[in-house]
């Protein structure tokens, strides 16, 4: 069957998700073509990607990086642009069908919202944008008829375990379709069994070494603190139009089950697979069809342990903080997200310790004046205020 080739924009192309997306697209080049690539500052990798895939546009975060890239690409026809506004424009371009949102952090918000407003198929990996703008984001998805497909492996799993009607519109109410609970699984990260007294000594190298997943630095640290699960908790609330009470976090160290949906009749449906993001990416690209992701199925003969526990909030205070923020509302989740970005960055620069990440997040939330957020402008103002408080807190600690 011949079909039109889908034009894809990859925001965050040089990152872990970006590269996995390019891998899946390359395996299915009869169906997908790369229209544009956008990234932060990695000119060298971007040069390679552009030479190989010859996108129509390449967009870097800053002017300087764009200049260098333009020089490197003088021999090919890729047009080089820079800045968030240009990313937003390209993501909304008429010729574009699908946008992979895989910039890390709040920087992903504006281009992702732009894709939503243009009614694109949006593959959402950038959970931070939803954590910041939840209500506004989901309202815009509905208003502009965008198709939103969760790529975060847990949310992709939950999506796969939901009835079709709820996939199309979760606002119809999970309970109407017999869903009684969303079971959000998490590995517990590298410090699941580490002596609590030694957590303060955790190094950057130890924190970014996730036992099961290979990911960018920020999300790896978030997985070690389980702030990642906290952000995912908030993400699930918005994606599946439910309340904090409907979501339960389950620790499953092997990361084979990627999350589950529990039904009133006692059934629990789980989605399983290798911890490889190409599976959810392929699912999102091809939905509702299935394509090759280059991922081997699980081999049950070799699986040994398969265990589950409840999270210990004294080990993961950031998880508790994020769940509390989720209950409190959107201003609180925006604040926690912003503070956490600054705290993780400071930890990665070795300016503060591992346990200080929580200290910064908790202090910023406590000191913040929470506003009602009804526009991108108001969200960005709340975000900026929290970042300023977080910087202050970091300088005091270092
Ligand atoms: P990464 O650090 O590997 O890549 C981040 C990408 O964003 C890079 O291409 C970088 O150049 C780009 N970027 C950073 N700042 C930018 C800016 N200001 N403008 C434009 N581009 C910018 O991160 P990742 O692991 O690929 O994660 C990306 C997103 O996907 C995050 O939001 C993360 O939470 C989410 N996610 C990742 C995974 C995973 O397995 N890696 C799983 C689930 C969700
Ligand atoms: Mg995840």
UniProtKB/TrEMBL annotation:
Keyword Repeat listed? The answer is no
Q: Which residues bind Mn(2+)?
A: 152, 154, 232
Q: Which reaction does it catalyse?
A: 2-C-methyl-D-erythritol 4-phosphate + NADP(+) = 1-deoxy-D-xylulose 5-phosphate + NADPH + H(+)
Cross-referenced Pfam families, in alphabetical order?
DXP_redisom_C (PF08436), DXP_reductoisom (PF02670), DXPR_C (PF13288)
Kindly give the InterPro entries that the UniProt entry links to this protein: DXP_reductoisomerase, DXP_reductoisomerase_C, DXP_reductoisomerase_N, DXPR_C, DXPR_C_sf, NAD(P)-bd_dom_sf
Q: In which pathway does it act?
A: Isoprenoid biosynthesis; isopentenyl diphosphate biosynthesis via DXP pathway; isopentenyl diphosphate from 1-deoxy-D-xylulose 5-phosphate: step 1/6
User: Boundaries of each 1-deoxy-D-xylulose 5-phosphate reductoisomerase C-terminal domain copy?
Assistant: 148-240
Query: Which PANTHER family does the record match to this protein?
Result: 1-DEOXY-D-XYLULOSE 5-PHOSPHATE REDUCTOISOMERASE (PTHR30525), 1-DEOXY-D-XYLULOSE 5-PHOSPHATE REDUCTOISOMERASE, CHLOROPLASTIC (PTHR30525:SF0)
Please report the name of this protein according to its UniProt entry. Answer: 1-deoxy-D-xylulose 5-phosphate reductoisomerase
Organism field: Pseudoalteromonas amylolytica
**Source gene?**
dxr
